[in-house]
């Protein structure tokens, strides 16, 4: 028993000798921790599988881990407790389409989707037929999904063509005609066309457009081209034309809106702004004439 046996040939690895016997007590001392762990596992068996993994293959279904109702009824409670211990949130059922399409819920969902970009009144109609883009805080239609160039040209040449321009900002100015004339003379020039206080526009029957610049910076520092219209006045006015309280509406492109508002505040020395939503007038203020504040040359309202 004590003789050493040669293992392997010298050509394959040299002379390697192995003992002919093993002392069990020394081997057991080296693996005693593993033996204790094995005995513990045998005495107290613990399954490390999830509930749905213990089912036979013929009873398993897709997405059992996400949908407890796909498990047999007696296993659902154990599955929910395992998911709760893992920290996974419970899957909530999405409301039915019939519930989501109710007018109140549909409007609430539309308002939620407008938190980042405001929709136009015609957004739903355009979204079904146009490629939509995000510009200046609005969701705007850019181009039609269909080839409509010839149809649009034919409509504009022979009939009419409508375009939703409600994303333009509307600014209302109220003040004496003389003050408004002097203020806009600092922001524009007659070299670009009729002034904002030209007689052809003062009647309120025609819409005009002018180019605005920084205060006294013409012909540099252009702000953009705006459209405007005067509110018509009654023929019963007997005051001097320059002293009559007039109302002027401006339509400004959203890209130039912040700069235009800044210059208007600077030129007309406005100390406070009123920002309101349409409708502009109420039944109480429809026929009333506002009084000018003492420290302002005009009333500045952003609609």
TrEMBL record:
Residues 60-79, 94-103 have a biased composition (Basic residues). Residues 34-101, 109-175 form the Pop1 N-terminal domain. InterPro entries: Pop1, Pop1_N. One of its GO terms (cellular component) is nucleolar ribonuclease P complex. Transmembrane segments: none annotated. One of its GO terms (biological process) is tRNA 5'-leader removal. Residues 60-104 are annotated as: Disordered. This is Ribonucleases P/MRP protein subunit POP1. It comes from Bactrocera latifrons. The lineage of its organism: Eukaryota, Metazoa, Ecdysozoa, Arthropoda, Hexapoda.
């Amino acid at each position: 028993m004590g003789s050493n046996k040669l293992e392997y040939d010298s050509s394959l690895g040299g002379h390697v000798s192995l003992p002919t016997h093993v002392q069990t007590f020394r081997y057991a001392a080296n693996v005693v921790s593993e033996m204790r762990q094995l005995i513990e596992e045998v005495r107290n068996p613990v399954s490390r599988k999830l509930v749905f993994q213990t089912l036979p293959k013929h009873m398993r279904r897709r997405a059992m881990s996400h949908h407890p109702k796909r498990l047999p009824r007696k296993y659902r409670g154990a599955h929910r407790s395992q998911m709760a211990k893992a920290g996974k949130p419970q899957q909530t059922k999405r409301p039915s389409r019939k519930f989501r399409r109710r007018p109140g819920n549909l409007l609430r969902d539309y308002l939620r989707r407008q938190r980042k970009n405001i929709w136009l009144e015609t957004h739903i109609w355009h979204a079904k037929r146009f490629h939509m883009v995000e510009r200046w805080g609005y969701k705007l239609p850019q181009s039609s999904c269909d080839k409509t160039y010839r149809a649009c040209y034919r409509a504009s040449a022979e009939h009419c063509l409508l375009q939703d321009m409600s994303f333009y900002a509307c600014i209302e100015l109220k003040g004496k005609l003389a003050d408004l004339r002097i203020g806009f003379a600092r922001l524009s020039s007659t070299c670009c066309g009729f002034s904002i206080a030209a007689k052809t526009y003062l009647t309120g029957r025609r819409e005009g457009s002018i180019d605005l610049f920084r205060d006294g910076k013409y012909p540099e520092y252009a702000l953009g081209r705006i459209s405007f219209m005067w509110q018509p006045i009654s023929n019963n006015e007997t005051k001097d034309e320059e002293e009559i309280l007039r109302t002027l509406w401006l339509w400004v492109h959203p890209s130039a809106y912040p700069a235009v508002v800044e210059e208007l505040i600077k030129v007309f020395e406005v100390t406070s702004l009123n920002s309101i939503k349409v409708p502009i007038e109420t039944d109480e203020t429809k026929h009333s004439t506002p009084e000018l504040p003492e420290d302002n040359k005009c009333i500045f309202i952003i609609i």
